[in-house]
């Protein structure tokens, strides 16, 4: 019973502070650091907590599913699938729906292109958010403090590339906020170009990203503005649905 009580107290502490270190948990519960660490690791194993880059614990996906007032991932997929399909119909390329998960973009739905040369489905994959168009669009909605917690140091590039300077990423996100959409110009994978935008719920909060991805051989940079218009129209329609 004491262990169960401590776990519940930790969940309340995570809810109140949103960021808890092992030492803070130990002091709050009046237990040894080793005990607090074990309890937090147990919460982490069940996705109720997750560690950030500073090794502090934050509410995890399972915790957020319980307390979230907005739509769940399953809700988003069910409600927005028609918009992903419609965007695919208009542009003829692979279209994805994604959500932000920590500092990653989780792909949750897809309408795949029928071209022989195409971008394949990424459903189920978790890619670094800062190298995907939909992930960038969602990162651009975060505060400076939230971004600092997710990325206390330079950001790792995909495919073993060099680290990405945080200042450069902040500038990119400022451009995303100004334009309303984000691009991925062969950043997540060589030969792929993508354009993404945020989908918002009734309160205006960004809850998902919608993106179109195409082989760079069929999508020169001159085509990006055209795709951006279609993606922004799709994002507005999807937001209206929510």
TrEMBL record:
Q: Membrane spanning segments where?
A: none
Keyword vocabulary terms for this entry: DNA-binding, Transcription, Transcription regulation
Record-annotated HTH iclR-type domain positions:
1-61
One GO biological process term is: negative regulation of DNA-templated transcription
* Pfam families (UniProt xref): HTH_IclR, IclR_C
Keyword Disulfide bond among record annotations: no
PROSITE patterns from the UniProt entry:
HTH_ICLR, ICLR_ED
Which GO molecular function terms does the record list? DNA binding; DNA-binding transcription factor activity
Q: Which residues form the IclR-ED domain?
A: 62-242
Database matches in PANTHER family: HELIX-TURN-HELIX TRANSCRIPTIONAL REGULATOR, ICLR FAMILY, HTH-TYPE TRANSCRIPTIONAL REPRESSOR ALLR
How is this protein named in the record? Answer: Transcriptional regulator
**Species annotation:** Streptomyces sulfonofaciens
């Amino acid at each position: 019973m004491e262990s169960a009580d401590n776990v519940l107290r930790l969940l309340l502490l995570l809810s109140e502070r949103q960021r808890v270190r092992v030492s803070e948990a130990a002091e709050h519960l009046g237990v040894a650091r080793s005990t607090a660490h074990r309890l937090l690791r147990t919460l982490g194993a069940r996705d109720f907590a997750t560690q950030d880059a500073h090794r502090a614990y934050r509410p995890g996906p399972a915790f957020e599913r319980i307390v979230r007032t907005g739509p769940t991932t399953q809700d988003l997929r069910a409600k927005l699938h028609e918009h992903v399909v419609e965007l695919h119909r208009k542009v003829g390329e692979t279209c994805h729906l994604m959500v932000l998960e920590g500092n990653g973009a989780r792909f949750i739905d897809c309408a795949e292109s029928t071209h022989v040369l195409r971008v394949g489905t990424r459903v189920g994959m978790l890619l670094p958010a800062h190298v995907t168009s939909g992930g960038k669009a969602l990162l651009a909605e975060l505060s400076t403090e939230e971004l600092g917690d997710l990325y206390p140091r330079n950001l790792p590039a995909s495919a073993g590339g060099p680290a990405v300077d945080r200042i450069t990423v902040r500038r990119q996100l400022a451009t995303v906020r100004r334009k309303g959409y984000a691009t991925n110009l062969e950043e997540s994978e060589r030969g792929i170009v993508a354009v993404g935008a945020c989908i918002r719920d009734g309160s205006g909060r960004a809850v998902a990203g919608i993106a179109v991805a195409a082989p760079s051989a069929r999508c020169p940079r001159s085509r990006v503005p055209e795709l951006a218009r279609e993606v922004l129209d799709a994002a507005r329609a999807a937001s209206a649905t929510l």
